[in-house]
Amino acid sequence: MSVFFAKRFLTFLATLVGASIVIFIVMEILPGDPALVILGVDATDEAVLALTKELGLDRPALERYFSWISGMMQGDLGISYAYRVPVWELVEGALKITIPLAILAMTLSVILALVIGLYAAANHNKIGDVSLMGFSQLGISVPNFWLAILLILFFAVNLRWLPAGGFPGWEEGIWACFKALILPALALATVQGAMLARITRSSVLEVFREDYVRTARAKGLSQRRTLWGHVLRNSMIPVLTAMGFQFANLLAGTVVIENVFHIPGLGSTVLKAINNRDTIVVENVVLLLAGMVVLTNFVVDLLYAVIDPRLKAHDI
Amino acid sequence: MSRPSSQSFVSRCLNSRSFVVGGLMTGFLLSCAIISLFWTPGEVYDITIADRFFAPSASHWFGTDQFGRDIVSLLMTGTQNSITVGVVAVSIGLFTGVTLGLTASAQRGWVEELIMRLSDFSFAFPAILSAIMITAILGPGGVNSIIAIGIYNVPVFARLTRGTANAIWTREYVMAARAAGKGKFRITLEHVLPNIRSIIIVQITIQFAIAILAEAALSYLGLGTQPPNPSWGRMLNEAQSLMFFQPMQAIYPGVAIALAVFGLNLLGDGLRDVLDPRLSRKR
Description:
Order of helices and strands of chain A: HHHHHHHHHHHHHH
Mean pLDDT of chain B: 81
Number of strands of chain A: 0
Mean pLDDT of chain A: 81
Shape of chain B: elongated
CATH architecture of chain A: Orthogonal Bundle
Largest interface: A-B, 51 and 44 residues
CATH superfamily of chain A: MetI-like
Structural class of chain A: mainly alpha
Distance between the termini of chain B: 20 Å
CATH architecture of chain B: Orthogonal Bundle
CATH superfamily of chain B: MetI-like
Radius of gyration of chain B: 22 Å
CATH topology of chain A: MetI-like fold
Helix content of chain B: over 70%
Largest sheet of chain B: none
CATH class of chain A: Mainly Alpha
Oligomer: heterodimer
CATH class of chain B: Mainly Alpha
Number of domains of chain B: 1
CATH topology of chain B: MetI-like fold
Number of helices of chain B: 11
């Protein structure tokens, strides 16, 4: 187990470092001068030069990369060019919204996918399966931000059950926040869940054809007990892989969905930063989001070993 | 793989319901784009505030927007935008990705390792995220969003190509070609590429659909196509602020996106059935 873990952990770290280098290189070839952007076009050359020095932009790129990374390890993400406050202050509050939103959406989509996928597989080629798969095909085709708008139209504008947008803040209580997050989470989960349901279905059907399943049925196990006892666990590997990739899409989706609902999460923060040319904020938020994606795939890798112990032997 | 005769190919196409329906929907999309190049029922770029918020009528099927523009014409012209983004972004990913994938598969060793590790990194950046970085540097705009989506497509094609090509390299006919003295480059062109073609064609339709979705999302955020050029994503953005008294304006562009993506996904499913019956039987 330890060799397996160490190998995976090293890959995880290497990917993280790689991602940070990619982000740094991309953001460093920025043609605009941040100091000029902050001070405006009327600023004197001396003022621009002084601010460039203050922001540390006159140092060599390699030095700046290492000070960015070492600062990040100590929780120091630098100073926002536009607001002149520590980036961490801008990001901290946003994370407390985006992470719960992503987790809520992922949970909803997994529940949706397992229920629909298992039901469809158990009723293979019957009317329930065919119509559910038809719906899931539609679900995949709908842009999540449009679904979000439709949900607002229905639940907020017509029924007036839920708020059309905004976020009350955690001090207002969990219930108020849950009410603000449920529509965004639903918009994210429906599309991802539809995709995951199709994968679950085909993976379960695949395992149903295995010899050991036939043996289980032959020895008199009911369809239901075969499903829970033999099929489910063995069909989860492709589903789990898909979940890892889905989480990346889901996080990217939150960027859009947060803007539909005017929720002050990472997505709104990064969009505001783009409009302000606040590249240091963009850099850090993109790395945070990419880091979450990489971390999720690392956890998924570890879960493989839990689900299917045979994989470890191959891997070492 | 023996080449199917043209007769059976056409009849297999017509037998696949997904292919027929998806093909018709995609064909409709294409014809909307082509027709809108020459003719639209109303003006797209002229703003006549006096004509705003017309209810649907014989002259304006879906009514007019807040600038008095005909919504059907905007939707039709928006098709051009989505198709352009799809074609260019998928082409960037296709040519670069397939070349990288074929190279990795032919060279193996550290070349393959390098290409695959690089594409691992890029999986940390979904289309929207890389687009955000690129627009943060180059500024928002249609071309920049196409580049961003195109870059996102590169590792998708690279991985797919390398995976399927590696399987071909172990086949007997490739060994025979090597024994006959053919070089890696010739084998790649003459044996590997033709045999992975159908899988790549299916992936093209899927990536095309994803590109349309990504472009719509970027334009919705204001990072993609800029006004006055019509795009479905922007139309949704503008409609959202009018949602309380013009809810239908938030419906039409979304339906257009969903139908386009639905059609392409169906076409992809159908093509899979037609081009590679072995794959579809497994599903």
